[in-house]
Structures are given as C-alpha cells and as structure tokens.
Amino acid sequence: MIEVSGLTKIYGQRTAIDHLDFTVNKGEIVGFLGPNGAGKSTTMKILTGFMPASFGTAKVAGYDVFDEAIEVKRNVGYLPENPPVYFDMVVEDYLKFAAKLHDISKAKLKPAVDTALEKTGLTHVRNRIIGNLSKGYRQRVGLAQALVHDPQVLILDEPTVGLDPVQIIEIRQLIKSLGGAHTVILSSHILPEVTATCERIIVINKGKIVAQDNIERLTTRMNQGLTFQMKVKSVSNNGIQAIQAISGVKSVNLHDGALAIEINPSQDDIRDRIVEAAVMEKMGVLEFGADKLSLEEVFLSLTTQETTEGVQS
User: Fold this and answer.
1) With contact defined as beta carbons under 8 Å apart, do 113 and 99 qualify?
2) Rounded CA separation 139/158 (Å)
3) Tens-level pLDDT at each residue, the chain (313 residues)
C-alpha cells in the first residue's frame, strides 16, 4: 500500500532523510518512531505530496507521489501535527467543506460526513463550533477530516501531542479501530503510543532507518545474545570463573542472588556451555533465561548509537 525506495530530502547542506526504504501493507498500522528531528515529519509530508523529495521514489495506494499527486491525495487522509481546523466553523460544516475539497459529489456528501462523524465519535457535537470544543475533540475533528473521503491510507503525524491522559487513550483506541479498513502510518516519538496502537514499527534516527519489524520480534532480536539471568542454588567463585572463561562471555555479575551473564552480541549460541559449566561446578541451576528488553531500551539502543544499516525483518 505504501512503497518507499531510496527516499532522500536535502535542505541546503543538511540531509533530513537519507535513502529510506520501507513498505506498509494493506490494513497495517505501522508506527514511524524516532526522536525529535529524526526526519519523521519530512517523510510524512513527502508521502502526502506536501513537499517533493530530492531523490528516490514513493508510491501510495499504487500511485507515484510525484507523477500522480492528485490520485495520491484522493487516496490519502492526512492529519498533521497541528489539526487543520477552522475554529469559527461548525463541525458538520467544516467536514462538508473538507469533503468538497476531496471532490465528494453532492449525492454522497451527507453520507460521507455522517460516516466520518460516527467513526470519530463526533455525532453528538456535529452542530458545535469547533473553537468551543476541547482539544481532544478538536483532534477528533482533525481525524474526521482525514477520514471523510474514505481514503485507503491514513497518515497521522503526532496525533496525540498536547492531549491529556484520558484524551490520549481515547484517540489511541480510535486509531486502533481504523486498522484493517484503512492502512495507517503513525508518526510519533511517544513509545507507549506506538506500543498501544501499532503492529509494526519503523525506527528512524538522524534521517536513516535503523530498524523495522514487529515489536515483539524486534525486542527479542535486540535482546538475543546480550544478557542472561541464571538463578542457582549456591554461588561459587570457581563456577563464576568457569563461566567467565567461556569464549564470548563478556562479564558475570552477582545481583540479588542471580548471575547476570553478558555475552557478545555477535557470539554464536553458547547457552548450553554456560549451563554445563554451572552444573559441572555443582552450582545447581534453578532458572536460566534471557533478559527481556523493553521498547524503551530498544529505542534508546537504536537512537543513541551511531546510525548504521538497521535491523530489518
């Protein structure tokens, strides 16, 4: 549904995004995750036809964003970071206006607006002035204008920025309900938002993609071969030394009655050798398993190191 290849945007001497490659499949909700200034909004603007790229290609719903920009706009709903609403307009009138901009025919206008109001939970405020609504409801109006023409693809840039905790939960649930019927790419630097709404994430840092995968697989793969926890009946110095002597083991530390064993990330699987060494030294192995990295730890690992070719599925 979205295909990006070699996408690059250069401002003077600064490269905002650098040879991005990714795809988003039909019906997916994908999080575009990165720190402020990573290049998320630039990518969103290019995908919606708001600005041109310097190099590379991008297709949305099968249409090239450069050569077939009008068709792309017909098939994309866009919610920028600041919702494009007119505060002095009534909600329903504003959505009719947005629908007409998308060339919705007169016969289909009311059904399109009614559907957008229903999907976003705005039916009961359809006759209210937008400026009199809470920020959370104004955000819903912004989402409704992105939905009113029933686009195949929704592109949402920081959709919960500035909302209170209750409003954030409501908008997240609303976005999650749109998956399947719409393909959604959601730009954010807020990790809980991505975890709560997205099936897959693309992590961008300094204009480059550093990882893209299912959240569970990414955390598992980032964790694999890094740190293991071993709980034993009795700790002995000889046992610790025997484990430490295994090729590939970086360190062995005792913490709260368990051994934290760190190994080189590129090391072959040596778990059996670690357990065998502990058994040979009569330490009595009770539990042995990998530490589970949180998404926060994965994110920090990916965005605080020098940008290299990312982890991909």
Assistant:
1) yes
2) 11
3) 899 999 999 999 899 999 999 999 999 999 998 888 889 989 999 999 889 999 999 999 999 999 999 999 999 999 988 889 999 999 999 999 999 999 999 999 999 999 999 999 999 999 999 999 998 899 999 999 999 999 999 999 888 887 888 888 888 888 888 888 899 999 887 777 788 888 898 989 999 998 888 877 776 655 554 678 899 999 889 999 999 999 889 889 988 778 988 887 656 778 899 999 999 999 999 998 876 556 666 677 677 754 444 444 4
Please tell me the CATH code under which domain 2-214 is placed: 3.40.50.300
Kindly give, in sequence order, each residue whose CB lies less than 8 Å from that of residue 58, ignoring residues fewer than 6 positions away: 2, 3, 4, 5, 7, 46, 47, 64, 65, 66
CA 119 to chain centre: 22
**Element at 117 (helix H, strand E):** helix 106-119
* Residues 63, 65, 71, 73, CA torsion sign: positive
Overall fold of domain 227-290: Alpha-Beta Plaits (3.30.70)
Start and end residues for every CATH 3.40.50.300 domain found in the chain? 2-214
Within 10 Å of residue 12's Cβ, how many Cβ atoms? 5
C-alpha neighbours within 13 Å on the C-beta side of residue 98: 31
Which residues touch 113 (CB under 8 Å, ≥6 apart)? 92, 95, 96, 99, 148
